[in-house]
């Protein structure tokens, strides 16, 4: 019996693969992944006039009312297809392209979409606007016409024959073919109940990413949230919706075969279970278009971890005082929204005084020796009336001034003497749930950040510089959390070490609010030089409109505000894609990428040493 079941499952899987391949309109052998072209596409988009705060990300598949052939209906494919779209905050391209049988054509299609998105504005009519943008792009860059025509002719060979379609669909297909060949030549398009086959060279209407999160979940109980680790498909999120709890007990039971639930309609999930991962459930979840969540608790969860557009599981730290109201920059209005964000200072729960872990002791001793000599290092003072060496720069200035008839008194010597380092530093560490990701079998990102904070504290306590340590995360604008690890003028000791080792990852990354509060704290220091360090593993994001360009623009504005107050903001990241957005937020010389995250604990003190010796 078991053998028969295995044979049946094997035959079923073989049939599924066969029928799916036959029904698919793609050319898998020529597939091009977005990840392999993300960086050059970002550069191309911005170089052609695209907004600097917009990054290239993967687009979700979209429901399209297409006419499918018999084979596609049998296989159940082509119900959803990824299409390109953009708005003021997002540029979303298909995660992969296999539209054409040649790799070069698929690569050119990615480039064309990036160019078209840079040219595009607000969409009012899908077909007319795409024609207008295409026409403007070809007029401005005539050299692009040959590549565009090559894409069009290759695509028209793959589109359905208008004569084989019903009258209304055939008329629409002929109009679209003419619009592709001669952009701007078609103004009126026939109506059809069935959508035309997707046009990969055109942009589609934007998806509203912010509204479902902001409206449907805004008033939800903050103590009932879901922790959502990153999905294996980077950049994609599963749609989620709330459903009423229905245990199936009690009441009148009506039995109708067509109302039986399937996997694609409803999945019961235990939102706070720590059980082991259920691989079957994970595979099913990858196929789900929308996941329904109820408040029903199951005695045993499936250990299923999903990346949903729902908030993560809440864990309580200890609040310190009242919340702090902070502004936030809205690039769409080009203005600060006063008292828009609520930031709560907190202490890590469960922290107890602890010593430095033994595994870090050798490196800590090495760093202390390197930094102790900075405390007593003599400094050269220029422009002195007397000294041990001639100040060549001062002498040259004096010589030039005398040649022009000026003879101002100035010191021409340099003197070396002891000096006190007049600087303060605040280190701000990203504690969002992305830091729970594993770097290898033994280390997570949060472990590397924790070790970095510990060694940074050891190094700076040795040199005697004034410094403070904070962590931050967020859950929408009403819950920006800032963990206080060490205040300015507070001694660095076992209490601080215990707080650092009690840190837990969670929530999201509203950088702007954290930077503004750090700027406020650092601005109160009397030191002349003030350094604001940010350690992170990714770009700004949160569950509401803070995703995408909005978060990037707000963070950039917070960095500019810090600079206007005389601070030096600098970002240290382990995100390999940081080059797409950090130069815009922090400037070309305002950040550094640590390519091997395990090196962060050692590199962080060395970077501080370099920054403070400039």
Short synopsis of the structure:
The protein has 614 residues and is an alpha/beta fold. It has helices at 2-23, 34-47, 70-75, 103-119, 126-140, 145-156, 167-181, 211-216, 279-287, 361-376, 392-403, 445-463, 494-501, 511-523, 549-564, 582-586, 600-612; strands at residues 32-33, 56-59, 61-63, 80-82, 85-86, 91-94, 96-97, 239-242, 290-293, 318-319, 324-330, 335-347, 378-384, 389-390, 413-418, 423-430, 466-474, 480-486, 529-536, 568-573, 591-593.
Describe the structure.
This is Nitric oxide reductase activation protein. InterPro entries: NorD/CobT, VWF_A, vWFA_dom_sf. Residues 422-611 form the VWFA domain. The structure is a single chain. The chain is α/β, with parallel strands linked by helices and 614 residues long. The chain folds into three domains: 2-181, no CATH class; 346-373 and 421-612, von Willebrand factor, type A domain (Rossmann fold), CATH 3.40.50; 378-418, no CATH class. The protein is 36% helix and 17% strand. The protein is built from 17 helices and 21 strands. Strands 10, 11, 12, 16, 17, 18, 19, 20 and 21 form a nine-stranded mixed sheet that branches. A three-stranded mixed sheet has the order 2-6-5, with helices on one face. Helix 2 (34-47) runs parallel beside helix 4 (103-119), helix 4 packs across helix 6 (145-156) and helix 10 (361-376) runs parallel beside helix 12.
């Amino acid at each position: 019996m078991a053998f028969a079941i295995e044979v049946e499952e094997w035959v079923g899987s073989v049939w599924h693969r066969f029928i799916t391949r036959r029904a698919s309109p793609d050319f898998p052998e020529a597939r091009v992944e977005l990840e392999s072209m993300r960086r050059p596409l970002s550069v191309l988009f911005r170089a052609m006039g695209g907004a600097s705060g917009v990054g290239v990300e993967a687009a979700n598949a979209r429901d399209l009312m297409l006419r499918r052939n018999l084979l596609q209906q049998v296989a159940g494919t082509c119900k959803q297809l990824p299409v390109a779209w953009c708005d003021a905050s997002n540029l979303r391209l298909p995660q992969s392209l296999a539209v054409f049988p040649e790799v070069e054509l698929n690569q050119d299609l990615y480039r064309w979409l990036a160019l078209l998105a840079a040219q595009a504005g607000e969409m009012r009519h899908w077909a007319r606007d795409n024609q207008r943008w295409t026409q403007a792009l070809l007029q401005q860059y005539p050299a692009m016409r040959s590549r565009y025509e090559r894409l069009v002719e290759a695509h028209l060979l793959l589109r359905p024959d208008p004569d084989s379609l019903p009258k209304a669909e055939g008329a629409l297909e002929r109009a679209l073919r003419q619009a592709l060949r001669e952009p701007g030549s078609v103004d009126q398009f026939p109506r059809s109940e069935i959508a035309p086959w997707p046009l990969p060279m055109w942009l589609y209407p934007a998806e509203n990413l912010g509204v479902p999160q902001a409206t449907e979940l805004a008033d939800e109980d903050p103590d009932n949230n879901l922790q959502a680790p990153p999905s294996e498909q980077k950049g994609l999120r599963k749609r989620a919706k709330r459903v009423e709890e229905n245990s199936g007990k009690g009441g009148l039971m009506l039995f109708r075969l067509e109302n039986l639930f399937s996997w694609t309609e409803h999945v019961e999930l235990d939102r706070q279970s720590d059980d082991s991962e259920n691989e079957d459930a994970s595979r099913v979840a990858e196929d789900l278009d929308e996941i329904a969540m109820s408040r029903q608790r199951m005695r045993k969860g499936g250990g299923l971890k999903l990346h949903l557009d729902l908030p993560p599981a809440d864990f309580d730290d200890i609040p310190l005082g009242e919340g702090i109201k902070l502004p936030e920059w809205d690039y769409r209005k080009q203005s600060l929204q006063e008292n828009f964000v609520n930031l709560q200072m907190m202490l890590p729960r469960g922290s107890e005084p602890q010593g430095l872990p033994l595994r870090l002791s050798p490196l800590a001793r090495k760093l202390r020796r390197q930094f102790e000599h900075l405390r007593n290092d003599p400094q050269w003072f220029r422009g002195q009336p007397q000294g041990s060496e001639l100040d060549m720069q001062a002498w040259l200035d004096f010589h030039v001034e005398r040649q022009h008839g000026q003879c101002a008194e100035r010191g021409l010597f340099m003197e070396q003497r002891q000096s006190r380092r007049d600087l303060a530093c605040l280190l701000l560490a990203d504690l969002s749930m992305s830091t729970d990701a594993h770097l290898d079998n033994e280390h997570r990102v949060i472990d590397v950040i924790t070790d970095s904070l510990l060694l940074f504290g050891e190094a700076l306590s040795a040199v005697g510089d004034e410094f403070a340590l904070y962590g931050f995360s967020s859950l929408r604008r009403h819950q920006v959390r800032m963990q206080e690890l060490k205040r300015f003028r507070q001694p660095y000791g076992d209490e601080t070490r215990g707080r650092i080792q009690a840190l837990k990852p969670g929530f999201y990354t509203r950088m702007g609010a954290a930077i503004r509060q750090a700027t406020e704290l650092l601005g109160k220091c009397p030191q002349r030089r003030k350094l604001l360090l940010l350690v992170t593993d990714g770009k700004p994001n949160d569950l509401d409109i803070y995703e995408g360009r909005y978060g990037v623009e707000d963070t950039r504005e917070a960095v500019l505000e810090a600079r206007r107050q005389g601070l030096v903001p600098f970002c240290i990241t382990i995100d390999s894609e940081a080059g797409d957005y950090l130069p815009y937020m922090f400037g070309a010389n305002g950040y550094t990428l640590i390519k091997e995250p395990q090196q962060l604990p050692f590199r962080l003190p060395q970077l501080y040493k370099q920054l403070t010796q400039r």
